[in-house]
Amino acid sequence: MRGIVGLGGYLPAQRLDRTTIAAVAGGGGGTGTRRVASYDEDATTMAVEAARLALRSAPGVLPRAVYLSTTAPPYLDKTNATAVHAALRLPDDVVAADFGGAVRSGVAALRLALRGGEPALVLTGDVRTGLPGSPDESEGGDAPAALLVGGEEDGPVLAEHLGGASTTAEFLDRWRTPGDVRSKVWEERFGESQYVPLATAAWTDALRATGLDAGDVDHVVLTGTHARAVRGAARKLGVRPDALVDDLSSRVGNPGAAAPGLLLTSTLESAAPGAVVALVVLADGADVLLFRTTPALAELRPPRAVADQLEAGRDLPYGRFLSWRGLLPV
Fold first, then answer.
1. Structural Rg of the chain based on CA atoms
2. Which member of 67, 202, 210, 213 lies 3.0 to 4.6 Å from 163 by CB, making a disulfide possible if both were Cys?
3. Using an 8 Å Cβ cutoff, are 252 and 140 in contact?
């Protein structure tokens, strides 16, 4: 049995009220809040916080690999995961590697770890931004997540990996060239027409591979940066409406590459043993991973549950948010 043996999600303390954006930017905003990395936080430092929580949830498990995925790496050419490795004081023979540049890299690192033979710490962290008043600015979010993957020989498996499937296609629905501070997006209908068939195909293949029916799935974590495509895919999966997990977009925002790990962590922290959990990620195709929670999950005591962190936080003035992002002179 191989699966998730430890987990942790971290929410930055700063919280931006979207209703304050329009008064300054002249438009945009909306309702709800999004989490914001502080001026001294980045994808790597936030990943360290999540990693510490994951390791505390699985005492005695030593990862033999650290994988860090982000679309906003603090460094290029240099490996960012080595900073996490150093902060966790891991042995020199533990490999540290980056998976970066694309939103899909987070779930790709998780798939690789689940297929491996040694315990691996899969970290995702993103700092999402956009032009003032744009949808990306208000709908994005900053957060990391950590999933410790291993087998029964490493520690109690909280969620057994049952299997999954993937589909891949090349099309430009969202992209950012090197040096750009914001992403460009294609017309929403185009992305939806591409993603929904890809998600449906991956979902069907994953159920067939695991011998499950859509009605057997208790919790569905469905995420992607294309909100319209996510909503369209949700209508095609054939699951109960109450099985769809809250994507936290109204309170956290969408943290890009970190969204799958954060939402899966939050779901497992509150799930009951014996539940089937599906992770569906739409990014340059579709990835579906299926898990079944084990009796060991009942003994999980998260050091800082995502649900508890949602209730905490401090309001951040929009002007300060712009200055931290380098979009407003200080």
1. 19
2. 210
3. no
Strands 14-17 and 314-315 come out as: parallel
Q: What is the pTM of this model?
A: 0.96
**What are residue 98's DSSP bridge partners?**
68
Task: Output phi, psi for 172, to 5 deg.
Answer: -100, 95
Give CA separation, 123 vs 104, 109, 120, 228, in Å.
Answer: 13, 8, 10, 27
Kindly list the distances between the CA atom of residue 326 and the CA atoms of 25, 39, 51, 315, in Å, as whole numbers in the listed order: 15, 10, 28, 19
Q: In what order do the strands lie in the sheet with 143-151?
A: 95-100, 65-70, 120-126, 143-151, 2-9, 159-168, 285-293, 276-282, 219-224
Strands 285-293 and 276-282 come out as: antiparallel
In the structure, what pLDDT confidence band is assigned to residue 188 with cuts at 50, 70 and 90?
Answer: confident
Residue 60 tokens, joined: 């005695």
**Segments in 211-303 forming alpha helices (H):** 227-234, 259-270
Q: CB-hemisphere CA count at 13 Å for 275?
A: 19
Within 8 A by CB and 6+ apart from 195, the residues are: 173, 224, 226, 229, 232, 233, 282, 286
Judge whether 280 and 199 are in contact, CB under 8 Å.
yes
| Lookup: tokens for 296 | 């060991």
Residue 137, amino acid? E
Helices (H) and strands (E) in the chain, counts: 10, 14
Q: Is 133 left (phi over 0), alpha (psi -120 to 50) or beta?
A: left
**CB hemisphere CA count around 80 (13 angstroms):** 25
Rounded to whole angstroms, the Cα distance separating 266 from 10 reads 10
Cα–Cα distance measured from residue 274 to residue 295, given in angstroms and rounded to the nearest whole number? 7
What is the bridge-based pairing of β-strands 276-282 and 219-224?
parallel
